[in-house]
Amino acid sequence: MRFRPVTPQDSERSILVLAVFIGLLAALLVATILFTLWPGYALLFCAAGVLALTLWNVAAYGYQCPSCQHQFQIGLFTAIGTPHVWNKKLLRCPACGKRDWASAIVKTK
Ligand SMILES: [Zn+2]
From ligand 1's centre to the CA of 97, what distance in Å? Predict the structure, then answer.
């Protein structure tokens, strides 16, 4: 597996995907209130959307340890179960064992 740094284009694409998801969710919430739909549709859409975005994130991105620069991939459960702030994620490095804010990097196959 090879990686490259995150470019501004990657960030723009992420923001666009996230904006589309939030827009669709907002529209669904408005429709739920206006037409008194079953609120479960919005909850299901939200859960499915978060899962889809997380799967896409796991497939597209790896992480780089700030201490030893080791580059590694994470699984779906690690992706869901660890905190992140934009393109940094609190992970334990599989090489040096240090738990720190790893930077996202893009997979290039
Ligand atoms: Zn490390």
Answer: 6
Neighbour tally for 47: CB within 10 Å: 10
The helix-helix angle for 8-34 and 40-60 (nearest 10°) equals 170
Which amino acid, one-letter code, is at 25? L
Structural domain total, the chain: 1
For residue 100, give its domain range.
3-107
Q: Ligand 1 mean position to 53 CA, how many Å?
A: 26
Q: What is the pTM of this model?
A: 0.84
Cα separation, 38 vs 87, in Å, equals 35
Q: Measure the CA–CA gap between 22 and 82, rounded to whole angstroms.
A: 22
Q: What is the pLDDT of residues 36-70, one digit of tens each?
A: 999 999 999 999 999 999 999 999 999 999 999 99
- CA of 7 from ligand 1 middle (Å) equals 23
H-only helix segments in 1-109: 8-34, 40-60, 76-81
